[in-house]
Specification:
Blueprint lengths: L5 H21 L12 H4 L1 E10 L3 E7 L5 E2 H14 L9 H4 L2 E8 L3 E3 L4 H7 L6 E6 L2 E5 L10 H11 L12 E5 L1 E8 L3
Antiparallel strand pairs: 1-2, 1-3, 1-4, 4-9, 5-8, 6-7, 6-8
Helix pairs in contact: 1-3
């Protein structure tokens, strides 16, 4: 994902922070008017927003893998949902918000990987660089490139993603689809400094 200049990156982080604050005060995502944003932020885009408590502990992560709305609106919605609607966590409370750090990942165009086995898939992956999507019928899961920090070995990375998708770690099928993608990372610092 290229084309996001410094000013646009700063604006996306501002939108994410504002959407979290709006969610705490009003219980909804910040409404963004795409027409008021730059061309890059008006264009359809996909993003993930990750929240971490106490520096490293995951506190929420929600996103989209395909462009379904203006990038600015996508970031606002995903920031709100990561804080208040990630089913793995209770909604963010005001008293814990100061200890939460925000990170925005802009999702590049997924590239289909034509693989016939897990071994082929593992060989094609670029640790630390690739995000990965696995899809089988209605099951789908993804790991952002940041997950390589916790799962640095490609076989472990793939097996953990299969489990996340609801599949056994040793599962393989000719119908299993794999896509890799890159991200542009925007570190937003603490939610409320």
């Amino acid at each position: 994902m290229s084309g996001i200049a410094g000013t646009d990156a700063a604006r996306l982080l501002e939108i994410a922070h504002a959407s979290l604050a709006h969610g705490l005060r009003h219980g909804s995502a910040l409404r963004v008017e795409p027409a008021a944003e730059s061309p890059a932020l008006r264009a359809p885009g996909a993003s993930f927003v990750t929240l971490r408590a106490e520096g490293r502990e995951l506190r929420g992560c929600i996103g989209t893998l395909e462009p379904v709305r203006a990038l600015a609106a996508d970031v606002a919605e995903n920031a709100y949902r990561a804080a208040f609607h990630d089913p793995r966590f209770a909604p963010l409370r005001a008293e814990e918000a100061r200890a939460v750090e925000l990170h925005v990942s802009l999702i590049g165009e997924p590239e289909r990987l034509d693989v016939r086995s897990e071994a082929e898939l593992v060989m094609l992956l670029r640790p630390g660089e690739d995000g990965l999507i696995l899809r089988l019928d209605s099951l789908r899961a993804t790991f952002l490139p940041e997950v390589w920090e916790a799962l640095p070995e490609p076989p472990e990375f793939v097996r953990a993603l299969k489990r996340k998708a609801g599949l056994p770690a040793g599962f393989w099928s000719d119908r299993l689809e794999a896509f890799r993608y890159s991200t542009t990372s925007l570190a937003g610092g603490r939610v409320f400094a």
